[in-house]
Structure prediction request, 217 residues.
Amino acid sequence: MIQSQVNKGKIYSGVTSLASDISVVETGLMQLTVKAGSFTTTGDKRLGIAPQTFVLLSDSVFNLTSDVAMTKFYKAELGVDAAGVVDVLMRSRIDDYPDAPVGWQKIHDIVFEFALPPNTLSLDMVDILVLTVEQGFPAGTTAADWQMQIGQV
Amino acid sequence: MGKLIEGQRDPKVVLIEKQEAKSKLIFGKHKRKKIDSLSKAELDELLTAICQRLGIADEAGNLL
Prediction:
């Protein structure tokens, strides 16, 4: 079952430019679909990096499989491939994750690692944490309620 | 759109799992038996499993 809560995938943009309307839905017993949308980074003023918006033009559909004997793990990330196309990369592992394709540049995690027990036939019983970005601050709070992280110079 | 890359099993890990499963079976088979009551074939089997478990013998039972 897909979830996104504070400390479990959901983040607030605060006063930054961070934004995302990319969503993840279960579209079959063992199928996840990452819906088309856009993701805007925070950038970094101190390093002179401007926020960037990446557009995922079409839905990405993934048919997952469980192993007969071993727990299998999956995770997915948004990134840019060698041709400069924004895409979603889903990887699985039992032992170690395979390398990303040559030229792949990760932008952000979209589906956080989750485990499929052996012989899983439906994602309904599996906790799948996904990224969601809410604008501003959690209800009832303002910037003053949150300690600003400014880093060390 | 969307790339799915399924991770492949690490052959070394798979081999270790196989050896562990095999040695568990063998240890289980001889459990609670006195060592001096085992036949030479059983002793060979047990010794091979122990050496494989220690990582000093390969799957065929050759000492490394």
User: Anything to note?
Assistant: Residues 2-138 of chain A form a domain with the Immunoglobulin-like fold (CATH 2.60.40.2980). Chain A touches chain B at residues 34, 56-63, 65, 81, 87-98, 100-101 (CB under 8 Å). Chain A has one domain: 2-138. The mean pLDDT of chain A is 93.
